[in-house]
Amino acid sequence: MSPxxxxxxxxxxxxxxxxxxxxxxxxxxxxRDAWCPTAEWALWVVITDRVVPADRRQLVTVVARQTMxxxxxxxxxxxxxxGLPDCGRIQLAGTWLEVVQDGYVPPSVAILMPSATPTxxxxxxxxxxx
Length: 130
Description:
With about 130 residues, the chain is mostly helical. It has six helices and no strands. The longest helix has 15 residues, at about 55-70.
């Protein structure tokens, strides 16, 4: 008999436990500073398994936001931590957020966005065309 390589139980059960823990602000044994590969695995499992129940969509959305924030590109080298220009993790998280029409933007991007549409007076002042 070979030794067991992972925890007993179905992958989907472990994935939901991980999603729930991360959505509630707790961490797991796979967490590394500002990102967690285990949570990213769990996100992939629950999204690709079947239809996510309505009462659990918010949990998945929170973890998708965390994944998006951790992998958002911070330069020409692609995302961190994986450094890929076409990061599959950000694509998965972005697809989920698009499907649920979340409109989430990582804080590093939101700070660069205007908080309100400028008025005609603001535009005249900014451009010097008063």
